[in-house]
Amino acid sequence: MTDYLHKFAVAPMIDWTDRHCRYFHRGLTRRALLYTEMLTADALIHGDRDRLLGFDAEEHPVALQLGGSDAAKLAEAARIGTDFGYDEINLNVGCPSDRVQSGTFGACLMREPEVVGRGVAAMKAAVDLPVTVKCRLGVDDQDIETALDALADQAFAAGADVLWVHARKAWLQGLSPKENRDVPPLDYDRVYRLKMRWPDRFIGINGGITDLAAAKAHLEKVDGVMLGRAAYQDPGLLAGVDREIYGVDASAPDLIAAARRMCAYAEAHCAAGGRMAAVTKPMIGLFHGRPGARIWRRILTVEGVKAGAGPEVIENALAGLAEAGGLESLAA
């Protein structure tokens, strides 16, 4: 078994897991592995690397997810990511969007496992970091038994340290990326069978996991769990990860403290010309299901987009939460 330690991760999600989201999540869990949004190899080679790759040291451990299919470009992008201080390089073999398909990467690579293998091998040769793959069960009319086995065989033969599997097919024609997160049925048992086939390799599961109880149940069958939409719909649940998943003997982080931690971060971000809304976006669901959650969301959403908005938006939202009795529910 690999010595890979990250049995809980927040999934890479386009338009969500940017540096602001990751910094916020790190205030809720010290142990979970965090991911960038998918970044294409071409963008890193030719684009503004500081803008695309810059992150705060407090975000560690943090993984860089790459999109691409050209082995040489993936190797170069992996080296760039290593130079920026990332802890892991991950190859996206799961994104079903039309734009990604037109670039011949993402989920369409499920049809080309040899290409995935070449990419993994090139990145392993280029960097001294874990190189991992995130994939689907298959695409379109592929048989999920043969498709997933073929992908895993090539990835592991090339040296992949970890395979994270989104336990659904991707439909490349007829479904939007959003629909591809819901419409294709989940098949967790297929991922469990893959783990039985590769007992000495790290296999992680993703898809439809909404709470830590479900995560712990999956960890009876596989090595890791990756949480997606629940991490932004109800980020407060991340406060239980270190204790419930990693067995850390410590109290869960205080949600109020996690919110206030973002004030100094927001002040620095806004002083550098950034928008407050970028900071508040991942915080909107923090008090999901608690008294005052609607007021919290409304203040962050409405005030966060105003010109000149700053960290006072967070304090105003906390005050609204308190007036609605939300603080009492946290102390209960």
From TrEMBL:
tRNA-binding in keyword set: yes
Active-site residue list: 95 (proton donor)
Enzyme class: oxidoreductase
Matching InterPro entries: Aldolase_TIM, DUS-like_FMN-bd, DusA, tRNA_hU_synthase_CS
Entry EC number(s): 1.3.1.91
Domain DUS-like FMN-binding: 10-301
PROSITE patterns found in the cross-reference section: UPF0034 (PS01136)
Binding site for FMN: 65, 134, 166, 206-208, 228-229
Keywords: Flavoprotein, FMN, NADP, Oxidoreductase, RNA-binding, tRNA processing, tRNA-binding
The protein's required cofactors: FMN
Catalytic function, reaction form: 5,6-dihydrouridine(20a) in tRNA + NAD(+) = uridine(20a) in tRNA + NADH + H(+); 5,6-dihydrouridine(20a) in tRNA + NADP(+) = uridine(20a) in tRNA + NADPH + H(+); 5,6-dihydrouridine(20) in tRNA + NADP(+) = uridine(20) in tRNA + NADPH + H(+); 5,6-dihydrouridine(20) in tRNA + NAD(+) = uridine(20) in tRNA + NADH + H(+)
Keyword Aminoacyl-tRNA synthetase: no
Site features described as Interacts with tRNA, chain residue numbers: 92, 178, 181, 294, 297
SUPFAM superfamilies linked to this entry: FMN-linked oxidoreductases
GO MF annotations, alphabetized: flavin adenine dinucleotide binding; FMN binding; tRNA binding; tRNA-dihydrouridine20 synthase activity; tRNA-dihydrouridine20a synthase activity
Family: Belongs to the Dus family. DusA subfamily.
Function (record text): Catalyzes the synthesis of 5,6-dihydrouridine (D), a modified base found in the D-loop of most tRNAs, via the reduction of the C5-C6 double bond in target uridines. Specifically modifies U20 and U20a in tRNAs.
Protein name, entry field: tRNA-dihydrouridine(20/20a) synthase
